[in-house]
Amino acid sequence: MDLGIRGKRALVCGASKGLGRGCAEALAEAGVDLVLNARGAEALEQTAEAIRKAHGVKVLTAAGDITASEARAGVIAAAGRIDILVTNAGGPPPGLWSDWSRDDFIRALDANTLTPIALMQTFLPGMIERGWGRVINITSQSVKAPLAALGLSNTARTGLTGFVAGTSRQVAKHGVTINNLLPGSHATDRSIALAEAAARAQGITVAEVERRGAASIPVGRYGTPQEFGAMCAFLCSAHAGFIVGQNILLDGGAVNATI
After folding, report:
1. 28 SS3 class
2. pTM of the prediction?
């Protein structure tokens, strides 16, 4: 399917690996030029070069911690005019509800609520002026079904979801859509880190944690960044203009809910 976005320009955050890279790869395959952001400059450049070679699109890099205001300003300046924004930042660490301080919550909110909001506030006006735009926020399945150990993430990502619910419906008349992608367990560094934490807490091996995790998913496996990226690219496409303010689960059926 021709997604109808060849020649558009996208900023993809957290793009050097994992789900962010999956999104970047899928957009590049659709002919979208990219500005890639991640904290590690070396890995980011390697990803950019691989995408250039594979898809022949223009790829710029802007390394830096997107959750830090000074670095974010540099990324915004490097990005310039964009048509597509994919926000993505690593989630806060797991833990126990009684151990989190106010500072822990502030850090989580800065990274996973206020950073994507700041990016939207920066780029939405230009999209509105031009009459077309797409925003995808990578959040978490915990927005639909909270995970006890991820209380910081539950809190911050649900706050972002509330912002998107109202904002998406205000900008839709301008040809701009905002939607959220809610990943379940995918084969990424984040899932490995969570498995390692669970293994330590339960006194079992990481392999056993991953085996149990896969067994709890109806499809019997973790998702791939490629599958995730394909959904991201479709939501950014010319065919997705009637999809507004949605929270789309990509979890292999792990969240057992009717709606």
Report:
1. helix
2. 0.93
- Cite the DSSP H helix spans in 183-236: 189-202, 206-215, 225-235
pLDDT, tens digit, for every residue of 167-202?
A: 999 999 999 999 999 999 898 877 788 788 888 989
Position 110, amino acid: D
The total number of residues shown for the chain amounts to 259
Residue pair 38/51 in contact by the 8 Å Cβ criterion: no
| Residue 212, phi-psi category: left (phi > 0), alpha (psi -120 to 50), beta (remainder) | alpha
- Return the closest-CA partner of residue 148 out of 109, 189, 100: 100
DSSP of 155-187, one letter per residue? Answer: HHHHHHHHHHHHHHHHHGGGTEEEEEEEE-SBS
Tokens of 237: 């496409």
Please state the φ and ψ torsions of residue 253, each to the nearest 5 degrees.
90, 10
